[in-house]
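yo, Peptidase M20 dimerisation domain-containing protein is done. seq:
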Amino acid sequence: MSAPSRQQPLDEALLSLSHAHQARYLEDLAELVAIDSGSYSADGVNRVADLVRAHLERLDFSVERVPLRQAHGHRIGDVLIGRKAGRLAVADGGRRLLLAAHMDTVFDDGAAAERPFTLNGSLAHGPGVSDDKGGMVAGLAALEILASAGIEDYAELVFLATPDEEIGSPASRPVTRRAAEGTHYALALECARENGDLVIARKGVADFRLTVTGRAAHAGIEPERGANAALAAAHLVIAIQALNGTWEGVTLNVGVVRAGSRFNIVCPDAELLVEIRSATDSGMRAATAAIQEAAARPVVPGTRVTVEELESCPPMEDTDASRRMLDRAQDIGVRLGLTFGATATGGVGDANTIAGTGVPTLDGLGPVGGADHTPEEWLDVSTVPARVTLLASLIADLGDCRGD
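structure:
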């Protein structure tokens, strides 16, 4: 990493450009927040994609727009992958960097009209203002000021904008993995935590359906001929919940239980929906194996259990490589007068998928925001110039390894 004495003038120049860009940032943010772009609002997401694509093309990015299959029975918007080559070959010390944001929100159509973009003092409000439109616009702003400063000392910049992150990225995940291929670092643009911290780790998640099959019988006349699937399911619930605390950073939750249909029939079938969240791949594997073991030995004679994995997303692990990225970000922060740490979260994002490909990943690089997924969602716009500068300086720093 270059010495601070060499980097300080660059940080100051980028900070000056970021302050000058603030009015444009607010205009772009207000325009995006005014668009309803819930995960199942494909037309709204694609309107956001139109604006992001136009912005990237003005910055000389080539943009691929990828239509997606349906997810959960709904049409999903498109994925954008923007690419811009720098002036350094990889062999000469250039690095490929991936910036990732999502265009969808958790809010239904009509939310933008009910709660339009507002700015009260330094706090902006509106659906998606923090999660993740504020972060996405910050990424575009960072690219803008790098271009204005003539900084192209990198091999390639890749800008990824996904349409379905808020529902677990079921349709876009393969495209995200493809975009991550060959990149050296990933910077995820979710907003910083309320205290300014970045995100160093995210738990992975896996969802399972356990189907319990028993044997029906008349509950009053010959219950002994039955095999009660509800009872077997109840024992499974206790066994699975008891696994909590077995492995550090792993949680298990039986979220849904369904069983039977009539009072007077020994229950012949039941279903459990189970979630695992884990900070590590090893924890995910251990918990999965424990569920399968419990399912292989049902307590009630005559019952059997099948296990089906429905969805899974790898953890974004706290690694030495991501810690080195954090160190570089904190060095820049010191020069900008920012002090922040890093935190782990149980929430899942596109950063999980990227990190799962082996690319060192750091998240939370947008401005400071909070109350995500609620009507009170906010973004502190006074943090925008310094946070955009932090992001731009980090791109410049990671993109050129000649001084490392």
